[in-house]
Give the backbone structure.
Amino acid sequence: MTDRTRVLYNADCPVCSFEIDHYARYSAAEKLGIGFDDLNACDLEPYGVAREDAARRLHVLKDGKVFSGIDAFLVLWRDMPRYRVLARIIGLPGVRHLASGVYDYLLAQALYGWDKRRRARRRSRDAVR
């Protein structure tokens, strides 16, 4: 297992891919060596999560440990100089708790639900063809 940071995300989700593509471009420009894995096209075994679980929230693999949700964002942001201040602020005890709640119960749920509906529409369109 590598100590290099790897990010698992849903490239089929327009919102997820927009944000993660931004991080990937920044990482490449700064030569940070962060890896980005599309959950739809990679081996999920190193992350230890099923596709549906991976689609529900962001996952980051660092130093052989998997982080998810806000903890995953904190690990990712700490590895990117531009975002270290954000990681410090969001990592504060009260702020972290609030951010975790907002992410887990609002944002992640909404994005996952939206992605499920998009996939269902795509399957029904493909079935008609």
Observations:
- The longest helix spans residues 93-128.
- The chain has a mean pLDDT of 92.
- Residues 6-122 form one domain.
